[in-house]
Amino acid sequence: MTPRKPPAQKSLHLRILSDVQDNIISGLWRPGFRIPFETEMAKTYGCSRMTVNKALTQLTRSGLLERHRKSGTFVKAPQSLSAALEITDIKKEVEDTGQRYGCRLLSDTQRLPTQLDHTRLGTKRVGAIRAIICLHTAKAVPFCLEQRLVNLDAVPEIEAEVFTKDAPGTWLLQAVPWNAAEHQILASAATQEVAQALEIARGEACLVVERKTQNERGVVTWARLSYPGTQHRLFARFTPASG
Amino acid sequence: MTPRKPPAQKSLHLRILSDVQDNIISGLWRPGFRIPFETEMAKTYGCSRMTVNKALTQLTRSGLLERHRKSGTFVKAPQSLSAALEITDIKKEVEDTGQRYGCRLLSDTQRLPTQLDHTRLGTKRVGAIRAIICLHTAKAVPFCLEQRLVNLDAVPEIEAEVFTKDAPGTWLLQAVPWNAAEHQILASAATQEVAQALEIARGEACLVVERKTQNERGVVTWARLSYPGTQHRLFARFTPASG
DNA sequence: CAGTGGTCTAGACCACGTA
DNA sequence: ACGTGGTCTAGACCACTGT
Protein backbone atom coordinates (compact mmCIF):
# COMPACT_ATOMS: atom_id res chain seq x y z
CA MET A 1 0.00 0.00 0.00
CA THR A 2 2.53 2.52 1.15
CA PRO A 3 4.61 3.14 -1.97
CA ARG A 4 7.99 3.60 -0.58
CA LYS A 5 10.00 5.33 1.96
CA PRO A 6 13.69 6.10 1.87
CA PRO A 7 15.11 3.27 3.94
CA ALA A 8 17.94 5.13 5.60
CA GLN A 9 16.74 8.25 7.35
CA LYS A 10 19.33 10.66 8.49
CA SER A 11 18.20 11.89 11.82
CA LEU A 12 15.58 10.69 14.18
CA HIS A 13 13.50 13.83 14.18
CA LEU A 14 13.36 13.73 10.39
CA ARG A 15 12.20 10.15 10.55
CA ILE A 16 9.47 11.11 12.96
CA LEU A 17 8.54 14.04 10.76
CA SER A 18 8.21 11.93 7.66
CA ASP A 19 6.34 9.21 9.52
CA VAL A 20 3.73 11.69 10.68
CA GLN A 21 3.64 13.24 7.24
CA ASP A 22 3.10 9.85 5.64
CA ASN A 23 0.23 9.12 7.97
CA ILE A 24 -1.41 12.36 6.96
CA ILE A 25 -0.75 12.13 3.24
CA SER A 26 -1.92 8.56 3.06
CA GLY A 27 -5.18 9.56 4.66
CA LEU A 28 -4.70 7.31 7.66
CA TRP A 29 -4.76 10.37 9.90
CA ARG A 30 -7.54 12.51 8.50
CA PRO A 31 -8.09 16.20 9.20
CA GLY A 32 -9.21 16.71 12.77
CA PHE A 33 -7.55 13.54 14.01
CA ARG A 34 -5.74 13.92 17.31
CA ILE A 35 -2.30 12.49 16.87
CA PRO A 36 -0.43 10.91 19.82
CA PHE A 37 0.92 13.22 22.50
CA GLU A 38 4.56 14.16 22.48
CA THR A 39 5.22 11.99 25.52
CA GLU A 40 3.56 9.01 23.86
CA MET A 41 5.54 9.39 20.67
CA ALA A 42 8.74 9.87 22.63
CA LYS A 43 8.08 6.56 24.31
CA THR A 44 7.22 4.90 20.99
CA TYR A 45 10.42 6.04 19.35
CA GLY A 46 12.45 5.62 22.50
CA CYS A 47 13.69 9.19 22.41
CA SER A 48 13.30 12.34 24.39
CA ARG A 49 10.35 14.66 24.06
CA MET A 50 12.52 17.40 22.55
CA THR A 51 13.18 15.26 19.51
CA VAL A 52 9.50 14.64 18.92
CA ASN A 53 8.82 18.31 19.54
CA LYS A 54 11.28 19.32 16.87
CA ALA A 55 9.49 17.28 14.25
CA LEU A 56 6.01 18.37 15.26
CA THR A 57 6.99 22.02 15.51
CA GLN A 58 8.24 21.93 11.96
CA LEU A 59 5.12 20.24 10.69
CA THR A 60 3.07 22.87 12.45
CA ARG A 61 5.01 25.61 10.69
CA SER A 62 4.36 23.84 7.40
CA GLY A 63 0.66 23.98 8.13
CA LEU A 64 -0.05 20.28 8.44
CA LEU A 65 -0.71 20.29 12.15
CA GLU A 66 -2.53 22.43 14.62
CA ARG A 67 -1.47 22.33 18.24
CA HIS A 68 -3.39 23.32 21.32
CA ARG A 69 -2.22 23.19 24.86
CA LYS A 70 -4.03 20.77 27.02
CA SER A 71 -6.02 19.31 24.13
CA GLY A 72 -3.23 18.01 21.93
CA THR A 73 -2.05 18.04 18.35
CA PHE A 74 -4.47 17.72 15.45
CA VAL A 75 -4.25 17.18 11.72
CA LYS A 76 -5.20 20.43 10.06
CA ALA A 77 -7.56 20.62 7.12
CA PRO A 78 -5.86 22.15 4.13
CA GLN A 79 -7.68 25.44 3.69
CA SER A 80 -5.30 27.00 1.29
CA LEU A 81 -2.56 25.54 -0.77
CA SER A 82 0.34 27.83 -0.25
CA ALA A 83 2.64 27.08 -3.11
CA ALA A 84 6.23 28.10 -3.37
CA LEU A 85 6.64 30.21 -6.42
CA GLU A 86 10.25 30.42 -7.46
CA ILE A 87 10.94 33.72 -9.09
CA THR A 88 14.41 33.71 -10.49
CA ASP A 89 16.54 36.16 -12.30
CA ILE A 90 15.54 36.29 -15.95
CA LYS A 91 19.05 35.67 -17.18
CA LYS A 92 19.18 32.50 -15.12
CA GLU A 93 15.69 31.58 -16.23
CA VAL A 94 16.68 31.68 -19.88
CA GLU A 95 20.01 30.00 -19.46
CA ASP A 96 18.43 27.18 -17.50
CA THR A 97 16.50 26.24 -20.60
CA GLY A 98 19.79 26.04 -22.49
CA GLN A 99 19.15 29.05 -24.67
CA ARG A 100 21.38 32.00 -25.32
CA TYR A 101 20.43 35.01 -23.26
CA GLY A 102 20.54 38.59 -24.42
CA CYS A 103 19.36 41.94 -23.17
CA ARG A 104 18.80 45.11 -25.17
CA LEU A 105 18.42 48.47 -23.51
CA LEU A 106 15.50 50.35 -25.03
CA SER A 107 15.29 53.36 -22.79
CA ASP A 108 17.09 54.74 -19.76
CA THR A 109 16.14 58.06 -18.28
CA GLN A 110 16.37 59.86 -14.98
CA ARG A 111 13.50 62.03 -13.86
CA LEU A 112 11.32 63.24 -11.07
CA PRO A 113 8.51 60.77 -10.44
CA THR A 114 5.21 61.27 -12.19
CA GLN A 115 1.88 60.51 -10.60
CA LEU A 116 1.95 57.05 -12.15
CA ASP A 117 5.44 56.43 -10.84
CA HIS A 118 4.26 57.25 -7.33
CA THR A 119 1.39 54.82 -7.64
CA ARG A 120 3.65 52.09 -8.87
CA LEU A 121 6.31 52.59 -6.24
CA GLY A 122 3.69 53.04 -3.55
CA THR A 123 5.42 56.15 -2.33
CA LYS A 124 4.29 59.66 -1.60
CA ARG A 125 7.50 61.53 -1.96
CA VAL A 126 10.77 60.36 -3.34
CA GLY A 127 13.48 62.25 -5.09
CA ALA A 128 14.69 61.39 -8.53
CA ILE A 129 14.06 58.00 -10.06
CA ARG A 130 15.66 56.12 -12.88
CA ALA A 131 13.34 54.59 -15.42
CA ILE A 132 14.68 51.76 -17.50
CA ILE A 133 13.08 49.71 -20.21
CA CYS A 134 14.89 46.72 -21.60
CA LEU A 135 14.10 43.67 -23.62
CA HIS A 136 15.29 40.23 -22.60
CA THR A 137 15.83 37.81 -25.42
CA ALA A 138 16.33 34.07 -25.71
CA LYS A 139 18.06 32.98 -28.88
CA ALA A 140 17.62 36.55 -30.10
CA VAL A 141 13.84 36.14 -29.84
CA PRO A 142 11.99 38.53 -27.53
CA PHE A 143 11.42 36.77 -24.22
CA CYS A 144 10.33 39.41 -21.77
CA LEU A 145 9.91 43.16 -21.63
CA GLU A 146 11.10 44.75 -18.43
CA GLN A 147 9.88 48.16 -17.34
CA ARG A 148 11.65 49.28 -14.20
CA LEU A 149 11.71 52.18 -11.81
CA VAL A 150 14.53 52.56 -9.34
CA ASN A 151 14.35 54.85 -6.35
CA LEU A 152 17.62 56.74 -6.31
CA ASP A 153 17.13 57.70 -2.66
CA ALA A 154 17.27 54.04 -1.69
CA VAL A 155 19.94 52.96 -4.17
CA PRO A 156 22.12 56.00 -4.88
CA GLU A 157 24.93 53.78 -6.07
CA ILE A 158 22.94 52.77 -9.13
CA GLU A 159 23.56 56.16 -10.71
CA ALA A 160 27.04 55.07 -11.69
CA GLU A 161 25.88 51.81 -13.26
CA VAL A 162 25.47 51.36 -16.98
CA PHE A 163 23.13 48.67 -18.22
CA THR A 164 24.06 48.21 -21.83
CA LYS A 165 24.97 44.61 -21.30
CA ASP A 166 23.51 43.25 -18.09
CA ALA A 167 19.96 43.84 -16.98
CA PRO A 168 19.33 46.09 -13.99
CA GLY A 169 17.52 43.26 -12.23
CA THR A 170 20.62 41.12 -12.23
CA TRP A 171 22.68 43.92 -10.82
CA LEU A 172 20.16 44.87 -8.17
CA LEU A 173 19.83 41.32 -6.93
CA GLN A 174 23.51 41.25 -6.14
CA ALA A 175 24.00 44.83 -5.07
CA VAL A 176 21.08 45.37 -2.74
CA PRO A 177 21.40 43.19 0.37
CA TRP A 178 18.26 41.38 1.38
CA ASN A 179 14.83 42.67 0.93
CA ALA A 180 11.15 42.05 1.03
CA ALA A 181 9.23 41.75 -2.19
CA GLU A 182 5.63 41.86 -3.22
CA HIS A 183 4.49 40.22 -6.41
CA GLN A 184 1.36 40.63 -8.43
CA ILE A 185 0.62 38.31 -11.29
CA LEU A 186 -1.92 39.22 -13.89
CA ALA A 187 -2.90 38.80 -17.50
CA SER A 188 -2.99 41.81 -19.72
CA ALA A 189 -3.56 42.62 -23.35
CA ALA A 190 -0.39 43.87 -24.99
CA THR A 191 -0.33 47.62 -25.43
CA GLN A 192 1.15 49.13 -28.54
CA GLU A 193 4.47 49.61 -26.80
CA VAL A 194 4.64 46.10 -25.38
CA ALA A 195 3.47 44.47 -28.58
CA GLN A 196 6.08 46.24 -30.63
CA ALA A 197 8.91 45.27 -28.32
CA LEU A 198 7.84 41.64 -27.96
CA GLU A 199 7.02 41.42 -31.67
CA ILE A 200 3.52 40.17 -31.07
CA ALA A 201 0.14 41.45 -32.10
CA ARG A 202 -1.37 44.32 -30.20
CA GLY A 203 -3.99 43.05 -27.75
CA GLU A 204 -2.42 39.63 -27.46
CA ALA A 205 -2.54 38.11 -23.98
CA CYS A 206 0.56 38.66 -21.89
CA LEU A 207 1.52 37.26 -18.56
CA VAL A 208 2.61 40.13 -16.36
CA VAL A 209 4.57 39.95 -13.14
CA GLU A 210 4.82 43.13 -11.15
CA ARG A 211 7.33 43.23 -8.36
CA LYS A 212 7.91 45.85 -5.73
CA THR A 213 11.06 45.45 -3.73
CA GLN A 214 11.75 47.12 -0.41
CA ASN A 215 14.46 47.30 2.14
CA GLU A 216 14.98 49.36 5.23
CA ARG A 217 15.72 52.47 3.24
CA GLY A 218 12.29 52.27 1.65
CA VAL A 219 11.03 51.12 -1.71
CA VAL A 220 14.00 50.12 -3.81
CA THR A 221 12.53 49.29 -7.16
CA TRP A 222 9.40 48.47 -9.05
CA ALA A 223 9.45 46.21 -12.06
CA ARG A 224 6.89 45.08 -14.56
CA LEU A 225 7.80 42.00 -16.55
CA SER A 226 5.64 41.21 -19.55
CA TYR A 227 5.88 37.79 -21.17
CA PRO A 228 4.13 36.69 -24.33
CA GLY A 229 1.30 34.67 -22.81
CA THR A 230 1.43 31.79 -25.17
CA GLN A 231 5.07 31.11 -24.47
CA HIS A 232 5.60 31.54 -20.80
CA ARG A 233 4.34 29.74 -17.75
CA LEU A 234 5.08 30.13 -14.09
CA PHE A 235 5.46 26.95 -12.14
CA ALA A 236 4.70 26.47 -8.49
CA ARG A 237 5.08 23.17 -6.79
CA PHE A 238 3.48 22.35 -3.51
CA THR A 239 4.39 19.61 -1.13
CA PRO A 240 3.05 19.52 2.41
CA ALA A 241 6.31 19.94 4.24
CA SER A 242 9.20 21.30 2.30
CA GLY A 243 11.52 19.55 4.71
CA MET B 1 12.51 54.98 8.44
CA THR B 2 12.41 51.56 10.04
CA PRO B 3 8.82 50.35 9.81
CA ARG B 4 8.79 49.39 13.46
CA LYS B 5 9.14 46.14 15.22
CA PRO B 6 7.04 44.56 17.92
CA PRO B 7 8.88 45.61 21.06
CA ALA B 8 8.16 42.60 23.21
CA GLN B 9 9.51 39.39 21.75
CA LYS B 10 8.02 36.19 23.04
CA SER B 11 10.76 33.67 23.23
CA LEU B 12 14.49 33.99 23.24
CA HIS B 13 15.11 31.99 20.11
CA LEU B 14 12.66 34.20 18.22
CA ARG B 15 14.47 37.26 19.46
CA ILE B 16 17.77 35.87 18.25
CA LEU B 17 16.16 34.97 14.94
CA SER B 18 14.82 38.45 14.35
CA ASP B 19 18.05 40.06 15.50
CA VAL B 20 20.02 38.12 12.92
CA GLN B 21 17.37 38.79 10.31
CA ASP B 22 17.52 42.51 11.03
CA ASN B 23 21.26 42.53 10.63
CA ILE B 24 20.89 40.91 7.23
CA ILE B 25 18.00 42.98 5.97
CA SER B 26 19.58 46.23 7.06
CA GLY B 27 22.65 45.35 5.07
CA LEU B 28 24.93 45.37 8.08
CA TRP B 29 25.69 41.72 7.46
CA ARG B 30 26.10 41.48 3.70
CA PRO B 31 26.03 38.30 1.63
CA GLY B 32 29.09 36.21 2.34
CA PHE B 33 29.58 37.62 5.82
CA ARG B 34 30.46 35.02 8.43
CA ILE B 35 28.17 35.55 11.35
CA PRO B 36 29.28 34.72 14.91
CA PHE B 37 29.58 31.06 15.86
CA GLU B 38 26.83 29.41 17.83
CA THR B 39 28.98 29.30 20.92
CA GLU B 40 29.75 32.99 20.63
CA MET B 41 26.14 33.95 20.23
CA ALA B 42 25.15 31.70 23.09
CA LYS B 43 27.59 33.57 25.28
CA THR B 44 26.35 36.94 23.99
CA TYR B 45 22.75 36.13 24.76
CA GLY B 46 23.59 34.24 27.90
CA CYS B 47 21.77 31.12 26.76
CA SER B 48 22.61 27.60 25.73
CA ARG B 49 23.81 26.69 22.28
CA MET B 50 20.60 24.81 21.53
CA THR B 51 18.60 28.02 21.69
CA VAL B 52 20.88 29.74 19.22
CA ASN B 53 20.84 26.66 17.04
CA LYS B 54 17.06 26.71 16.89
CA ALA B 55 17.06 30.25 15.52
CA LEU B 56 19.85 29.68 13.01
CA THR B 57 18.42 26.40 11.79
CA GLN B 58 15.15 28.12 11.00
CA LEU B 59 16.88 30.94 9.17
CA THR B 60 18.81 28.39 7.17
CA ARG B 61 15.57 26.71 6.14
CA SER B 62 14.26 30.10 5.08
CA GLY B 63 17.25 30.51 2.84
CA LEU B 64 18.91 33.47 4.52
CA LEU B 65 21.86 31.56 5.86
CA GLU B 66 24.25 28.93 4.66
CA ARG B 67 25.97 26.74 7.18
CA HIS B 68 29.12 24.73 6.83
CA ARG B 69 30.75 22.59 9.43
CA LYS B 70 34.09 23.77 10.53
CA SER B 71 33.85 27.03 8.56
CA GLY B 72 30.81 28.59 10.13
CA THR B 73 27.56 30.25 9.18
CA PHE B 74 27.34 32.72 6.31
CA VAL B 75 24.82 35.16 4.95
CA LYS B 76 23.50 33.76 1.72
CA ALA B 77 23.09 35.85 -1.39
CA PRO B 78 19.50 35.95 -2.59
CA GLN B 79 19.65 34.15 -5.90
CA SER B 80 15.99 33.70 -6.38
CA LEU B 81 13.09 35.24 -4.65
CA SER B 82 10.91 32.35 -3.71
CA ALA B 83 7.57 33.86 -2.96
CA ALA B 84 4.78 32.21 -1.10
CA LEU B 85 1.81 32.11 -3.37
CA GLU B 86 -1.36 31.61 -1.41
CA ILE B 87 -3.87 29.72 -3.47
CA THR B 88 -7.13 29.57 -1.63
CA ASP B 89 -10.47 28.04 -2.29
CA ILE B 90 -12.43 30.23 -4.69
CA LYS B 91 -15.42 30.45 -2.40
CA LYS B 92 -13.21 31.75 0.37
CA GLU B 93 -11.43 34.04 -2.06
CA VAL B 94 -14.67 35.73 -3.06
CA GLU B 95 -16.12 35.91 0.42
CA ASP B 96 -12.93 37.46 1.75
CA THR B 97 -13.57 40.46 -0.46
CA GLY B 98 -16.98 40.79 1.13
CA GLN B 99 -18.92 39.80 -1.96
CA ARG B 100 -21.65 37.24 -2.33
CA TYR B 101 -20.41 33.98 -3.76
CA GLY B 102 -22.25 31.81 -6.19
CA CYS B 103 -21.53 28.78 -8.35
CA ARG B 104 -23.41 27.59 -11.40
CA LEU B 105 -22.92 24.13 -12.82
CA LEU B 106 -22.55 24.30 -16.59
CA SER B 107 -21.67 20.74 -17.42
CA ASP B 108 -21.11 17.47 -15.61
CA THR B 109 -20.32 14.30 -17.47
CA GLN B 110 -18.68 10.98 -16.85
CA ARG B 111 -16.55 9.45 -19.56
CA LEU B 112 -13.49 7.52 -20.50
CA PRO B 113 -10.52 9.85 -20.81
CA THR B 114 -9.67 11.33 -24.18
CA GLN B 115 -6.14 11.93 -25.36
CA LEU B 116 -6.34 15.51 -24.08
CA ASP B 117 -7.58 14.31 -20.70
CA HIS B 118 -4.58 12.03 -20.40
CA THR B 119 -2.24 14.88 -21.20
CA ARG B 120 -3.86 17.10 -18.64
CA LEU B 121 -3.93 14.51 -15.89
CA GLY B 122 -0.46 13.37 -16.80
CA THR B 123 -1.58 9.75 -16.74
CA LYS B 124 -1.25 6.91 -19.16
CA ARG B 125 -4.13 4.78 -18.13
CA VAL B 126 -6.97 5.58 -15.85
CA GLY B 127 -10.51 4.34 -15.80
CA ALA B 128 -13.47 6.64 -16.01
CA ILE B 129 -13.21 10.31 -15.21
CA ARG B 130 -15.74 12.91 -14.30
CA ALA B 131 -15.55 16.18 -16.20
CA ILE B 132 -17.13 19.19 -14.61
CA ILE B 133 -17.41 22.76 -15.78
CA CYS B 134 -18.75 25.38 -13.46
CA LEU B 135 -18.83 29.12 -13.20
CA HIS B 136 -17.95 30.93 -9.99
CA THR B 137 -19.65 34.25 -9.50
CA ALA B 138 -19.16 37.20 -7.19
CA LYS B 139 -22.23 39.37 -6.77
CA ALA B 140 -23.77 37.37 -9.62
CA VAL B 141 -20.96 38.57 -11.93
CA PRO B 142 -18.77 35.91 -13.54
CA PHE B 143 -15.61 35.58 -11.50
CA CYS B 144 -13.89 32.44 -12.66
CA LEU B 145 -14.53 29.54 -14.97
CA GLU B 146 -13.51 26.17 -13.60
CA GLN B 147 -12.85 23.22 -15.89
CA ARG B 148 -12.14 20.12 -13.89
CA LEU B 149 -11.30 16.49 -14.40
CA VAL B 150 -11.56 14.04 -11.53
CA ASN B 151 -9.96 10.62 -11.59
CA LEU B 152 -12.61 8.24 -10.34
CA ASP B 153 -10.00 5.59 -9.59
CA ALA B 154 -8.44 7.87 -7.01
CA VAL B 155 -11.65 9.37 -5.66
CA PRO B 156 -14.41 6.82 -6.15
CA GLU B 157 -16.52 8.45 -3.48
CA ILE B 158 -17.07 11.50 -5.68
CA GLU B 159 -19.51 9.56 -7.83
CA ALA B 160 -22.19 10.03 -5.22
CA GLU B 161 -21.65 13.77 -4.92
CA VAL B 162 -23.84 16.32 -6.61
CA PHE B 163 -22.41 19.77 -7.29
CA THR B 164 -25.41 21.90 -7.98
CA LYS B 165 -24.68 24.18 -5.09
CA ASP B 166 -21.10 23.83 -3.95
CA ALA B 167 -18.13 23.68 -6.25
CA PRO B 168 -16.23 20.39 -6.62
CA GLY B 169 -13.04 22.14 -5.53
CA THR B 170 -14.52 22.99 -2.17
CA TRP B 171 -15.68 19.44 -1.65
CA LEU B 172 -12.41 17.88 -2.78
CA LEU B 173 -10.36 20.08 -0.50
CA GLN B 174 -12.23 18.70 2.48
CA ALA B 175 -12.85 15.17 1.33
CA VAL B 176 -9.49 14.15 -0.08
CA PRO B 177 -6.85 13.90 2.63
CA TRP B 178 -3.58 15.59 1.82
CA ASN B 179 -1.88 15.90 -1.42
CA ALA B 180 0.83 17.36 -3.53
CA ALA B 181 -0.08 19.96 -6.06
CA GLU B 182 1.53 21.44 -9.11
CA HIS B 183 0.50 24.81 -10.41
CA GLN B 184 1.04 26.46 -13.72
CA ILE B 185 0.16 30.08 -14.22
CA LEU B 186 -0.24 31.50 -17.66
CA ALA B 187 -2.01 34.11 -19.72
CA SER B 188 -4.32 33.01 -22.44
CA ALA B 189 -6.71 34.58 -24.91
CA ALA B 190 -10.29 33.67 -24.10
CA THR B 191 -11.66 30.95 -26.33
CA GLN B 192 -15.23 31.11 -27.51
CA GLU B 193 -16.34 28.85 -24.67
CA VAL B 194 -14.50 30.77 -21.98
CA ALA B 195 -15.51 34.15 -23.30
CA GLN B 196 -19.15 33.22 -23.36
CA ALA B 197 -19.13 31.90 -19.81
CA LEU B 198 -17.20 34.83 -18.38
CA GLU B 199 -19.19 37.30 -20.46
CA ILE B 200 -16.13 38.91 -21.98
CA ALA B 201 -14.95 39.39 -25.51
CA ARG B 202 -13.41 36.50 -27.35
CA GLY B 203 -9.63 36.82 -27.38
CA GLU B 204 -9.53 38.92 -24.25
CA ALA B 205 -6.60 38.20 -21.96
CA CYS B 206 -7.34 35.75 -19.16
CA LEU B 207 -5.23 34.72 -16.22
CA VAL B 208 -5.21 30.95 -16.09
CA VAL B 209 -4.19 28.76 -13.18
CA GLU B 210 -3.83 25.07 -13.89
CA ARG B 211 -3.56 22.77 -10.94
CA LYS B 212 -2.82 19.07 -10.81
CA THR B 213 -3.43 17.43 -7.48
CA GLN B 214 -2.03 14.09 -6.43
CA ASN B 215 -2.10 11.79 -3.47
CA GLU B 216 -0.90 8.30 -2.85
CA ARG B 217 -3.60 6.79 -4.99
CA GLY B 218 -2.34 8.77 -7.98
CA VAL B 219 -3.53 11.86 -9.75
CA VAL B 220 -6.68 13.01 -8.07
CA THR B 221 -7.82 15.92 -10.13
CA TRP B 222 -6.85 18.49 -12.72
CA ALA B 223 -8.38 21.92 -12.76
CA ARG B 224 -8.12 24.90 -15.04
CA LEU B 225 -9.27 28.18 -13.55
CA SER B 226 -9.73 31.06 -15.96
CA TYR B 227 -10.08 34.57 -14.60
CA PRO B 228 -10.84 37.66 -16.62
CA GLY B 229 -7.38 39.17 -16.80
CA THR B 230 -8.32 42.73 -16.19
CA GLN B 231 -10.04 41.92 -12.94
CA HIS B 232 -7.95 39.36 -11.19
CA ARG B 233 -4.49 39.40 -9.73
CA LEU B 234 -2.54 36.83 -7.81
CA PHE B 235 -0.57 38.15 -4.89
CA ALA B 236 2.60 36.68 -3.57
CA ARG B 237 4.39 38.23 -0.69
CA PHE B 238 7.95 37.49 0.14
CA THR B 239 9.62 38.12 3.42
CA PRO B 240 12.97 36.61 4.28
CA ALA B 241 11.80 34.38 7.08
CA SER B 242 8.15 33.57 7.29
CA GLY B 243 8.69 33.08 11.01
C1' DC C 1 -6.67 22.07 38.85
C1' DA C 2 -4.45 19.01 35.84
C1' DG C 3 -2.55 18.02 31.45
C1' DT C 4 -0.55 19.52 27.29
C1' DG C 5 2.57 22.04 24.47
C1' DG C 6 6.45 25.88 24.54
C1' DT C 7 10.67 26.76 25.87
C1' DC C 8 15.15 26.23 27.78
C1' DT C 9 19.39 23.94 29.83
C1' DA C 10 24.07 21.99 30.36
C1' DG C 11 25.88 18.82 29.07
C1' DA C 12 27.22 14.96 25.26
C1' DC C 13 28.74 12.53 21.05
C1' DC C 14 29.06 12.40 16.13
C1' DA C 15 29.78 13.99 11.14
C1' DC C 16 31.99 16.57 8.22
C1' DG C 17 35.24 19.56 6.05
C1' DT C 18 39.34 22.36 6.46
C1' DA C 19 43.94 22.14 7.42
C1' DA D 1 43.74 16.63 14.00
C1' DC D 2 40.66 20.01 15.09
C1' DG D 3 36.75 23.02 15.14
C1' DT D 4 32.17 23.77 13.73
C1' DG D 5 27.54 22.56 13.14
C1' DG D 6 23.93 18.49 13.69
C1' DT D 7 21.75 16.00 16.76
C1' DC D 8 20.15 14.22 21.03
C1' DT D 9 19.24 13.84 26.16
C1' DA D 10 16.84 13.92 30.69
C1' DG D 11 15.52 16.69 33.03
C1' DA D 12 13.01 21.51 34.25
C1' DC D 13 9.67 25.36 34.61
C1' DC D 14 6.08 28.04 32.56
C1' DA D 15 1.74 29.30 29.88
C1' DC D 16 -2.32 28.22 28.38
C1' DT D 17 -6.76 26.05 28.49
C1' DG D 18 -10.35 22.71 29.09
C1' DT D 19 -12.76 20.47 32.87
The first-to-last residue Cα distance of chain A is 23 Å
Total number of helices of chain A: 7
- Report the oligomer: homodimer
Unreliable residue runs of chain A: 1-8
Q: Which topology of the largest domain in chain A does CATH recognise?
A: Chorismate lyase
List key phrases describing it.
2 domains, Arc Repressor Mutant, subunit A, Chorismate lyase, 7 helices, 6-stranded antiparallel beta sheet, 3-stranded antiparallel beta sheet, alpha+beta, 36% strand, DNA-binding, homodimer, 243 residues, elongated, 11 strands
In short:
Two copies of one chain form a homodimer. A six-stranded antiparallel sheet of chain A has the order 5-6-7-10-9-8. Chain A has a three-stranded antiparallel sheet with strand order 1-3-2. The radius of gyration of chain A is 24 Å and the shape is elongated.
